[in-house]
Specification:
Aspartate Aminotransferase, domain 2, binds pyridoxal-5'-phosphate, Aspartate Aminotransferase, domain 1
Length: 366
Amino acid sequence: MKPSSLSSAPARPSHGGNLAWAAALAGCSPTEILDFSASINPLGAPASVWQTLQASLADLRHYPDPSYLTLRQALSQYHDLPIEWILPGNGSAELLTWVSRELAALPQVFLPTPAFGDYFRALKAFNATIVPQLLPDLGKPILPPLAAPGCQNSAKPQAGCLINNPHNPTGCLFPIDTLRPLLDRFALVVVDEAFMDFLSPTDQQSLVTAVVDYPNLVILRSLTKFYSLPGLRLGYAIAHPDRLQRWQSWRDPWSVNSLAAAAAIACIQDHRFQQITWNWLPPARSQLFDGIAGFEPLQPYAGQANFLLVRCQTAVSQLQQDLLMRHRVLIRDCLSFPELGETYFRVAVRTETENQRLLDGLADVF
Ligand SMILES: Cc1ncc(COP(=O)(O)O)c(C=O)c1O
């Protein structure tokens, strides 16, 4: 039987960041491992968030406000959208579950692949009919046609689609112009923008501003990656108020805890941290890209997010194990993406010194 995440022994992870598994394999403490497997901002969490968390501890004595008014006001200001169009969630993963319930009610859900594994978890939970659509070129931001024969010409759109922009695991950023036509072709378009914050405002290709014109559009955003708070669970959806009210009626009234709600406000108001991250990423990503490209067996793909997908001439499991045992460096194998299989890995972009530690490890292993 496949070990589930509830079994007691650490199982091979299907998500990045499973340090318990890596530490058990390497025979060391999780704190000794430099984690390139989870695509989390290495500069965070922001100091302003730690201060807010400290100051908010007393709030734990009360239930959170189920309408999350203060948080939604802050998010509404941040996106310049009316407050009714925003719903916070326990990570974007929670909101993915609710949107999957709606996607599953449609006859088909088109999904560009390789795709983030949690999409399958959420869609399968509601018995959705998933139609995987292979990306035509992993290295280029080109969407697959996203339509079964005849579907494109249908007078009334029936199917749904779930897109991730920038895309995990390739890092491709799909231009807005390639996404907009989907809004007329699909009954429900979900764009998971979990990594969009990593692009500076002038480089982002977000569909957030289209939401008010398209009731069939849902945007999912995550605060856990950019602000380095994956354990706190913070995300939000931007969509038509009727849809969000429906989700609110389905879920438990307090899915976002008080500390997460307070931290989220501090996050989005920390413009200094945002700017520092935008300054850090492009040169650090180039350093990592160039360093990896320098190894003959490795071919990195030029992504726009805070991680790089890399193709290896041989199976990655030995490389992953060598890096872990000899250098305490964890990379993300891509075994959980069936379309990629054993010759790909993904690495987060970290600080220049940390990136160098990975490059030194690779030099040693090769
Ligand atoms: C593409 C994508 N979307 C969503 C998530 C979930 O993010 P959150 O921590 O907000 O639930 C992840 C996490 O790895 C992800 O890779």
